[in-house]
């Protein structure tokens, strides 16, 4: 077992707020499993793929049909221009077999994108931006692990994007080629092991059936920091389709750049009823480079400053003569 990696993951679980102030973290930051997305970006020059294979059993007692859905959902994320911004492409490509129990229905199959959108997410507020105000208490384990009201103050990001409908998509009949989406994502660190994420989105803007979507997710990291579990609720409200879904599952961190996950879920009604399972992974291509801080801007020394020694290449004799003029 790689104990050095476990120690690093445990360190990140304790000091994540400080590291997240720069967006980038040493360990992959994935939106999987579930639908709720983090308020934080992946970090500048980080490319990340998140993919899952799904199966869903969907039955409708009112329209008298049973259906099976197979497919894949995926996201491509890239840290663009600076730490707080990422561009993301999200897609779901599915095939649905429909069997009607009534002779009036016509069995069939429909295959296409049920989700096909591109957007930008930008972090507008980060409560951990100032690391000096969020240093851990080195003298009290309880102070670092107990819940505090200030932990409810979330990081906040804004999202703007669009769904693209190409050709005769059976899942978006009558929709325009482009439909817009706006969203807010928040993220609170309730304790070193609990994270709360919430999303509110206004989707399908510009169609005949715009819809509100919301999600609330709680993630818990185990004592072995490679393992985590989550519980999520999602709501959808529109004249076309309304529903409430629940999900739960777990994730396992194989390495700093690779995570696997699995989750199951269902809704709470019969028109239609839905039960599904998803297995997936997240993989990161890390091209991030730390921003170097000029030495004259770093803190250190008795007076909190370090001056550049511009005489490094001059003779030892002159260095010795001027040594009292350098503030170490």
Automatic annotation (TrEMBL):
Keyword Signal (UniProt): yes
Pfam families: Phenol_MetA_deg (PF13557)
Basic residues composition bias: residue spans: 305-320
Signal peptide residue numbers: 1-22
Keywords, comma-separated and alphabetical: Signal
Kinase among keywords: no
Entry-linked InterPro entries: FApF (IPR025737)
Chain intervals for the UniProt region annotation (Disordered): 296-328
Name of the protein this chain belongs to: Transporter
């Amino acid at each position: 077992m790689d104990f050095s990696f476990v120690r690093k993951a445990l360190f990140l679980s304790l000091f994540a707020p400080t590291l997240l102030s720069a967006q980038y973290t040493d360990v992959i930051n994935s939106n999987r499993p579930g639908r709720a997305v983090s308020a934080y970006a992946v970090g500048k020059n980080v490319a990340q793929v998140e993919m899952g294979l799904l199966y869903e059993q969907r039955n409708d007692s009112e329209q008298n049909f049973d259906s099976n859905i197979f497919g894949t959902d995926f996201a491509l994320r890239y840290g663009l221009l600076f730490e707080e911004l990422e561009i993301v492409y999200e897609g779901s490509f599915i095939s649905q077999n429909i069997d009607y129990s009534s002779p009036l229905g016509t069995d069939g199959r429909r295959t296409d994108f049920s989700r096909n959108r591109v957007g930008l997410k930008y972090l507008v507020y980060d409560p951990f931006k100032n690391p000096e105000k969020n240093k851990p208490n080195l003298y009290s384990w309880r102070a670092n692990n107990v819940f505090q009201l200030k932990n409810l103050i979330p990081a906040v990001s804004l999202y703007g994007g669009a769904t693209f409908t190409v050709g005769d998509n059976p899942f978006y009949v009558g929709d325009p080629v482009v439909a817009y989406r706006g969203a807010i994502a928040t993220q609170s660190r309730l304790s070193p092991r609990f994270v709360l994420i919430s999303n509110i989105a206004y989707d399908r803007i510009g169609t005949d059936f715009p819809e509100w979507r919301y999600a609330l997710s709680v993630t818990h990291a185990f004592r072995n920091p490679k393992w985590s579990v989550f519980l999520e609720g999602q709501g959808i409200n529109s004249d076309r389709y309304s529903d409430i879904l629940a999900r739960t599952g777990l994730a396992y961190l194989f390495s700093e750049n690779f995570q696997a996950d699995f989750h199951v879920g269902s809704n709470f009604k019969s028109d239609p009823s839905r039960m599904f399972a998803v297995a997936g992974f997240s993989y990161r291509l890390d091209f991030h480079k730390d921003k170097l801080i000029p030495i004259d801007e770093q803190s250190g020394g008795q007076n909190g400053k370090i001056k550049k020694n511009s005489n490094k290449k001059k003779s030892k004799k002159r260095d010795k003569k001027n040594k009292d003029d350098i503030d170490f």
